[in-house]
Amino acid sequence: MKNKLVTVIGGGGFLGRYVAQALLKREVRLRVAQRDPRAAWFLKPLGTFGNVQFVGADVTKPETIAHAIAGSDAVVNLVGILSGNFSKVHVEGARVVAEAARAAGVQTLVHVSAIGADANSDSAYGRSKGEGEAAVRAAFPQATILRPSVVFGREDAFLNRFASMIASTRFVPVLRAQTRFQPVFVGDVADAVAVAIADPELAAGKTIELGGPDVMTMGALMRWIALAIGRKPTFLELPDAIGSLIAMGGALPGAPITQDQWKMLQHDNVVSSGAAGFADLGISPTPLASVAPTWLVSYRRNGRFGARAAA
């Protein structure tokens, strides 16, 4: 991979910063493409002089994508949204990237989707992810599609969100307490991207599902977080009837969950039986307990965020 030019679209985001690190360790030339390149400038110190480039690009504007990936050996598409026009970004945007990669003669394309991607999903998010995968396959059949479960890491909006809530209130409501998750460490997902580029024979043309070694229900996960930050709140496992009512107000500002997210919660977010996974890439996934406490400690009573929550 040394000196290959790899363009990462959406490289300044949560997952993007780890993908950048994983690639730069392999001595690639990195081009970070996103709508506002300035938001990714924090990546500059990770590389040596001149081997990290920044370019403006938007998956809804094909001409900017064509410009961004010109001359690339490999392209990684990390762009995704949790609200808004899913079809425009996850389907049309994915198609734009794949078609541009094919036209530019790119050797390797890695498209990051999500577990739950299904063109027949009753969730707009899951449906758009599934349709986006189909669009990628049609334009670039040898693309590697990675489907991570819920991704966790120091800067995530998953564990940190729950930890903040647990640290700030005595009574913690839990929706869909029985739904199962398979949280995956962000560094492992980044390594999967790097391996898919470094050794295309392992992953080209495949759909690979990425889940961590821990399978936990929502209720068990919340209690694990509470234990990790030394809190003892009362957990209120809400029945689905109440959860559904809460989701009906999902369009309001500050709503805890949208109707579409509620639909996604009706299904387990775990690796499918028989699916290709980390083992096929030679990666051993990281247990939640081995890394998460290093930053969750901030939510303890005397921690950085714990003090704020108690104020």
Question: Would you kindly provide a brief summary of this structure?
Answer:
The protein is of the alpha/beta class and 311 residues long. Helices cover 39% and strands 16% of the residues.
Describe what you observe in this structure.
- With 311 residues, this protein is an alpha/beta fold.
- It is 39% helix and 16% strand.
- The N and C termini lie far apart (50 Å).
- Strand 1 (5-9), helix 1 and strand 2 (29-34) form a beta-alpha-beta unit.
- The longest helix has 18 residues, at 86-103.
- Helix 1 (14-24) packs across helix 6 (186-198) and helix 2 (62-69) crosses helix 3 (86-103).
- The strands form 4 sheets. A 7-stranded parallel β-sheet has the order 3-2-1-4-5-6-11, sandwiched between helices. It has a two-stranded parallel sheet with strand order 7-10. The chain has a two-stranded parallel ribbon with strand order 8-13.
- It has helices spanning 14-24, 62-69, 86-103, 124-139, 159-168, 186-198, 200-203, 218-228, 240-248, 259-264, 288-291, 293-296, 304-310, and strands spanning 5-9, 29-34, 52-56, 74-77, 108-112, 144-148, 151-152, 171-174, 180-181, 184-185, 207-210, 216-217, 234-237.
List keywords for this structure.
single chain; 311 residues; alpha/beta; two-stranded parallel sheet
